[in-house]
Amino acid sequence: METRPxxxxxxxxxxxxxxxxxGFVLLFIGAILTVVGGAxxxxxxxxxxxxxxxxxxxxxxGLTGLMAIAPNESRVLLLFGEYRGTVVDSGFFWxxxxxxxxxxxxxxxxxxxxxxxxxxEKDAAGKILKKKSRTMGRPxxxxxSDGNPIEISAVxxxxxxxxxxxxxxxxxxxxxxxxxxxxxxxxxxxxxxxDSENHEVSLRGSTEKICDQLRSDIQERLSDAGVHVxxxxxxxxxxxxxxxxxxxxxxxxxxxxxxxxRIVDGAxxxxxxxxxxxxxxxxxxxxEKQRATLVSNLLVVLCSDRNTQPVIxxxx
Length: 316
Hints:
Layout: E1 15-16, H1 18-41, H2 45-63, E2 66-69, E3 73-79, E4 82-87, E5 91-94, E6 100-105, E7 109-112, E8 117-118, E9 121-122, E10 128-130, E11 133-134, E12 140-143, E13 149-160, H3 163-168, H4 173-191, H5 207-221, E14 227-239, H6 241-281, H7 288-303
Antiparallel strand pairs: 1-5, 2-5, 3-4, 3-6, 7-13, 8-11, 9-10, 12-13, 13-14
Helix pairs in contact: 1-2, 4-5, 6-7
């Protein structure tokens, strides 16, 4: 199957707009004077009036070719549907008035996955009734690689680097970035577990690696949209409410087991050191039964999670 070539950006630098501005203004003033003079002269004055009206229309039409471009903005120029180039330099320029000028911002933008964009509303006269807005992002609910339902969302930072691809290769590049970022995040969440006890890559334990992988996945999906992803970071990560309590108990149990294991290791070391010091300094001689009793008492004292109460032997 034959593939359609991708339209790539072609940067152009048009003429500065100050000279055309002065020229068309002078032409407009001269045309008005010509019309007035033709009306006064009479006779051949009709020809002068016709020439003056034509010059007025030409000057007004020529002024429509002026455009001012702010920093980090661009204008995509089309001539009867044919792409002619993109102006990315800031300043005041003049181009062919027949050009259609499409504005695309080159500024850095960001959004949170799960948010929704409300387009601006205009009346019949073109007056903006409601500005464009974006709702707060809602975490996406997805199952991780272990099948546990989790909630996850991310913040994506991006910018347009190829205006031709952004305008001609996708229908709405802003909506395309939002949808593909959401899809990449969901796909990433299904490939890794929420947490791992074997030091494997996990969503919670390998934040930097997961974020780098997310940025790479999003960039791959946006390769033909003229967009460069600067950063992608996990902004929300949690178990779904229906299993959050059970998972919290599991995490607490794991923490208790790990703490107890460390306490036991430390207590055994302390008992070994105490017995060694007693034997080395000949403080007291203990038989096997006494050593076992001493070890048992020391371990109870060191490993107990509550304060021990000593029992003093008063008999023989």
